[in-house]
Amino acid sequence: MIYGMYLSTMGALVQTHRHATISNNLANANTHGFKPDWSQFTEVPVENEFHQDRFALWDRILMNTGGGVWNDTTVTNLSPGPMQETGNPFDVALHDEPHSGTWSFFRFRPDGAGPDRIYYSRDGHFVPDQDGILRNVAGDMVLDPDGAPVNVTAPPRSVITVREDGVVVANNPDGNAILGQIGVFRTADYKNMVKTGDSRFVSDGAAMENWQNGVMGGYLEESATSAIEEMTNMIEASRVYEANMRFLTIQDEQLGNAVRRIAARTA
Prior knowledge:
- Strand 11 and strand 12 (175-181) form a beta hairpin.
- The chain is of the alpha+beta class.
- The protein has helices at residues 2-27, 60-63, 227-266; strands spanning 37-43, 69-76, 83-85, 92-94, 103-109, 119-121, 127-128, 134-135, 141-142, 159-162, 167-172, 175-181, 184-187, 193-197, 200-203, 209-210, 215-217, 219-221.
- The strands form 6 sheets. Strands 5, 6, 9, 13, 14, 15 and 16 form a 7-stranded antiparallel beta sheet that branches.
- Helix 1 (2-27) runs antiparallel to helix 3 (227-266).
- It folds into 2 domains: 2-78 and 226-266, no CATH class; 83-221, no CATH class.
- Helix content is 26%, strand content 28%.
């Protein structure tokens, strides 16, 4: 009976973690360039109680029971979101080659940070500051392929366009001028891209390749979160959680009844 209570507790904890992940996906359903997370679970083999090395960093009390499920890892779905046309030349999106197995990112650096503190993101909503330095919504500097800030200070009466290779061009009656180039980097090591918040990633050993291609000026990539799908997942997680809690309550009541009967017989 105690064993069953442990298993129900494990099931409830797993769904609690899943619910938190889904809630974060829903909260970012309107965040440009956001990539939703998926919770993955693993079966706990019954022989865990005989193989102590399989505990890893899991809860030792629950792992001692053997059986059940536990949180394994959380993975990020890097599939592209829908493209939204804005008409703003400093809104840029990335279009990856279908089935290429690689994902492209813009590159950023906060003010005062060293060259090793680099962030990556799919959110291409950029704004030039008073000095003409292109920045993202968090205030980080947009970097060119060489890691330098992108300055988009343009001559008067210029019309700004962004080419497919990320080059920013100022079109004006006196001729066209190249202002800079937005750096684009791609990687196939998506499992080594770690979220840091604000739709940003850091490379945890991922091989980043300079890839000046697929830039769409005047567009933004919307969140890849499907609100309908996530709401369905949330309802499912809530119902499974409630079922585990009901089983836990039933087992607790049965245990209480057993204790009372034993006490009555020994009285």
